[in-house]
């Protein structure tokens, strides 16, 4: 049986609502289970070699995608079953609500003047060294993480869900999680994580562009967002974080980028939105609200896109008879 665009639309909306209401469970999350499995594969395959890393990427991304494809195929016989499967997969791969909660918790600690608590919570949101940051730098790190993870934890997954259904949702989350685990430039993962990082660059490309476009449309300063995104996106070392962070910087009227510290490794990144003011604690809440608007628009875009493709396919089949 052919894919069911209406079933996907209903399931994706229900899964999005589930994430909005429930967030991520503290125990037993499927993504956490995937992380443990990927770590076990890494322990068996690790060598300081790109080929071994590519094998891990193939197993850890291809295996869940193949399993999801089998489940989706079995569920096609029943629209309610397909809707339920799509809803469960969408809820499992989205992380927008937990992203907002963590950001607001750090913002609340900063607003109360408790920088130590903010430092303790920052690793829940990003991999930077919190001890090297003051309150203003923590606020900037949070806004940058909200921007990047709006693409990684929400929009990118919805894009691949619209393109590939449940297998697309699962494959994107597997690739993105694997990149977070091994796709960085530490001595251990510089070669082993290369394949996962490049695969994530490819998978994240469409979602990052859609996130940036929606941030321009949904932000409080569309003109500023467009100006900074067009001028500064390519200056960022990441091909996908660049457009998203630049669009958020312009939309919120803040300055992002600069010196970053990751577990003893210091990076000096270009400044995005250099003419804007530094990030303040209140901008964390503004970034979370923008993220939620972008996420909702991304759901609508994914649903409309899937329904439009389905309608075109039905029209083409009728014309060919």
Which strands sit side by side, in order, in the main sheet?
Answer: 2-1-3
Approximate shape = globular
How large is the share of residues in beta strands?
Answer: 5-15%
Helicity range: over 70%
Radius of gyration: 20 Å
Measure the end-to-end span: 18 Å
Major beta sheet summary:
3 strands, mixed
The count of strands amounts to: 3
Number of helices: 11
Show unreliable segments. Answer: none
What structural class results from the helix and strand content?
Answer: mainly alpha
Mean pLDDT, all residues: 92
User: What is the string of SSEs from the N terminus onward?
Assistant: HHHHHHHHHHEEEH
Membrane topology: Multi-pass membrane protein
Keywords: Cell membrane, Cobalamin biosynthesis, Membrane, Transmembrane, Transmembrane helix
Subcellular location: Cell membrane
Main location: membrane
Provide key terms for this protein.
single chain; 321 residues; mainly alpha; three-stranded mixed sheet; 6% strand; cobalamin biosynthesis; Cobalamin biosynthesis protein CobD; transmembrane helix; membrane; Cobalamin_biosynth_CobD/CbiB
What's the structural blueprint in terms of helices and strands?
Elements: H1 5-22, H2 30-45, H3 50-75, H4 79-93, H5 96-111, H6 115-121, H7 135-182, H8 194-218, H9 222-232, H10 241-252, E1 254-262, E2 265-272, E3 277-278, H11 282-320
Parallel strand pairs: 1-3
Antiparallel strand pairs: 1-2
Helix pairs in contact: 1-4, 1-11, 2-3, 2-7, 3-7, 3-8, 4-7, 5-6, 5-7, 5-11, 7-8, 7-10, 7-11, 8-9, 8-10, 8-11, 9-10
């Amino acid at each position: 049986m052919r894919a069911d665009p209406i079933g996907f639309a209903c399931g994706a909306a229900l899964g999005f609502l589930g994430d909005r209401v429930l967030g991520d469970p503290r125990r037993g999350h499927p993504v956490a289970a995937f992380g443990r499995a990927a770590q076990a594969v890494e322990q068996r395959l690790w060598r300081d070699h790109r080929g071994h890393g590519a094998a891990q990427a193939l197993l850890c991304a291809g295996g869940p995608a193949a399993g999801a494809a089998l489940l989706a195929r079995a569920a096609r016989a029943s629209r309610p079953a397909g809707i339920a499967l799509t809803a469960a997969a969408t809820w499992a791969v989205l992380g927008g609500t937990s992203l907002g909660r963590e950001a607001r918790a750090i913002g609340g600690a900063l607003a109360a003047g408790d920088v130590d608590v903010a430092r303790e919570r920052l690793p829940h949101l990003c991999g930077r060294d919190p001890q090297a940051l003051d309150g203003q730098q923590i606020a900037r790190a949070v806004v940058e993480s909200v921007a990047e993870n709006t693409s990684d934890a929400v929009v990118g997954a919805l894009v691949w869900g619209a393109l590939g259904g449940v297998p697309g949702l699962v494959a994107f989350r597997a690739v993105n999680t694997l990149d977070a685990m091994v796709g960085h430039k530490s001595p251990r993962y510089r070669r082993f994580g290369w394949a996962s990082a490049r695969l994530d660059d490819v998978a994240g490309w469409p979602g990052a562009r859609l996130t940036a476009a929606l941030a321009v449309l949904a932000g409080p300063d569309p003109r500023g967002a467009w100006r900074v995104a067009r001028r500064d996106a390519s200056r960022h070392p990441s091909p996908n974080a660049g457009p998203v962070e630049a669009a958020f910087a312009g939309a919120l009227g803040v300055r992002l980028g600069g010196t970053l510290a990751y577990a003893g490794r210091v990076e000096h990144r270009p400044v995005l939105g250099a003419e804007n003011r530094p990030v303040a604690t209140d901008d964390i809440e503004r970034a979370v609200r923008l993220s939620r608007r972008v996420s909702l628009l991304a759901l609508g875009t994914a649903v409309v896109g899937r329904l439009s493709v389905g309608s075109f396919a039905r029209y083409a089949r009728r014309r060919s008879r």
